[in-house]
């Protein structure tokens, strides 16, 4: 199946291109903000306790989280997948090379880096506002799959982060006129590949959102601090580790032992911490005040 002729730019506002990738971030943040506010306003989800923050505090938290996503995502990408960016700050031959780390428009964001950035934002905000960190995490965790879904769909539109070669009937050749014009060749080659971006949008986005929504709205898991956060960590870690088997490893990555990939190794700690949080919450009574 040929890759559609998607244009990564939705529209040009004068000299400013509005890209689908940027809109995916905006859509994920805005819808996540709305969903988190709905969780806070639905008092029965927290009863007999109360929501950990008000909607006004949520508005402040969103700014912290946005900074965590952008800074963590970019710095994490450079750390995990392209550490030469840090060296180029001091050894780059041109101004572009020296400041490549800050050129967000060239692409290169890591979920695990963004996740760590958001975790740091939650820790700092909870300490500053004297809020229970786990309960604050439980407000944020259920909304994350929304952003993941939009982000993976944008990856597909951009024709990036493709899957491994395959012979399945729905395989896609990530090569079209736009990609050839942009790079002078097709980085993915002409071989049919798994549309792993769509798999991730489905599992990390739709399926994980459904599981967390069931936990929140049907099983009242918000009443046990850390439960929803742990469930997210386990769910994402398992989905990502499994999908790494059909996703092409990032360029320049070494051959890790046991067939592991960087994505798998970064997801394993998430699964372990998440399992511990679920076990901890399971064995504790609901918050009563």
From TrEMBL:
Location (main, coarse): membrane
Molecular function as annotated in GO: phosphatidylglycerol-prolipoprotein diacylglyceryl transferase activity
GO annotation terms (biological process): lipoprotein biosynthetic process
Matches recorded under Pfam families: LGT
Role description: Catalyzes the transfer of the diacylglyceryl group from phosphatidylglycerol to the sulfhydryl group of the N-terminal cysteine of a prolipoprotein, the first step in the formation of mature lipoproteins.
PANTHER family: PHOSPHATIDYLGLYCEROL--PROLIPOPROTEIN DIACYLGLYCERYL TRANSFERASE, PROLIPOPROTEIN DIACYLGLYCERYL TRANSFERASE
Family note: Belongs to the Lgt family.
Protein known as: Phosphatidylglycerol--prolipoprotein diacylglyceryl transferase
């Amino acid at each position: 199946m040929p890759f559609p002729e998607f244009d990564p730019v939705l529209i040009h506002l004068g000299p400013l291109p509005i890209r689908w990738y940027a809109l995916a971030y905006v859509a994920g943040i805005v819808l996540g903000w709305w969903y988190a506010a709905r969780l806070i306003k639905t008092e029965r989800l927290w009863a007999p306790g109360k929501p950990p923050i008000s909607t006004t505090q949520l508005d402040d938290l969103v700014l912290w989280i946005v900074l965590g996503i952008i800074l963590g995502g970019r710095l994490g990408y450079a750390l995990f997948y392209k550490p030469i960016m840090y060296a180029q700050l001091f050894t780059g031959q041109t101004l572009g090379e020296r400041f490549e780390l800050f050129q967000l428009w060239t692409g290169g964001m890591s979920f695990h880096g963004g996740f760590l950035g958001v975790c740091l934002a939650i820790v700092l905000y909870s300490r500053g506002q004297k809020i229970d960190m786990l309960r604050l995490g439980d407000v944020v965790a259920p909304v994350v799959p929304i952003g993941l879904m939009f982000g993976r769909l944008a990856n597909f539109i951009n024709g990036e982060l493709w899957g491994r070669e395959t012979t399945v009937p729905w395989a896609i050749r990530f090569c079209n006129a736009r990609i050839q014009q942009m790079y002078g060749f097709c980085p993915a080659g002409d071989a049919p590949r798994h549309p792993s971006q769509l798999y991730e949008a489905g599992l990390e986005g739709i399926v994980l959102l459904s599981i967390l929504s069931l936990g929140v709205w049907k099983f009242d898991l918000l009443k046990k601090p850390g439960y929803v956060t742990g469930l997210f960590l386990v769910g994402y870690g398992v989905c990502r580790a499994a999908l790494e088997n059909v996703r092409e490893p990032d360029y320049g990555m070494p051959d890790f032992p046991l067939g592991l990939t960087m994505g798998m190794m970064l997801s394993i700690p998430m699964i372990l911490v998440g399992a511990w949080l679920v076990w901890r919450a399971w064995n504790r009574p609901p918050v009563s005040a």
